[in-house]
Amino acid sequence: MKDANWITGGSIFRKEFIIGKDIKNAKLAITAKGVYVAYINGRRVGGFILAPGYTSYNKRHQYQEYDVSGLLKSGANTIDVWVGGGWYNSGMNWTKGYKYGAANGIIAELDLDGEKICTDGSWLCCKSPVISDSIYDGERYDARIEPVFCKNAEILDEPKSNLIPQEGEIVAEQERLTPANRFKTPKGEDVIDFGQNLTGYVEFTVTAKAGDKIVLSHAEILDGDGSFYTENLRGAAQRIEYICRDGVQTWKPRFTFMGFRYVRIDEAPDPENIELTAIAVYSDMKRTGYFESSDKMLNKFFENALWGQKSNFLDIPTDCPQRDERLGWTGDAQIFMKAASYNYDTERFFVKWLGDLAADQFEDGNVPMVIPDSLPPHEVFGKGSAAWGDAAVICPWRLYTIYGNRDILGKQFESMKKWTYFNRPYADYHLGDWLALDDSDGDYTHSTRKEFVGRAYSIYSTGIVIKAGRILGEDVSEFVAFRDNAVMEFNRDYPYTEYYTQAEHVLALHFDIAPDKPAVAKALADKIAADGGHLTTGFVGAAYLLHALSDNGYTELAYDLLLRKEYPSWFYPITMGATTVWERWNGIKPDGTYFAADMNSFNHYAFGTAVDWLYEVAAGIKADESEPGFENIIIKPVTDGRFDYLGASVETRFGRVSSKWTRKDGGIAYEIEVPTKAEIVIGGETHKVGRGSYEFHTD
Question: Which domains does the chain have, with CATH numbers?
Answer without folding.
Answer: 6-168 (2.60.120.260), 173-283 (2.60.120.260), 289-610 (1.50.10.10), 632-698 (2.60.420.10)
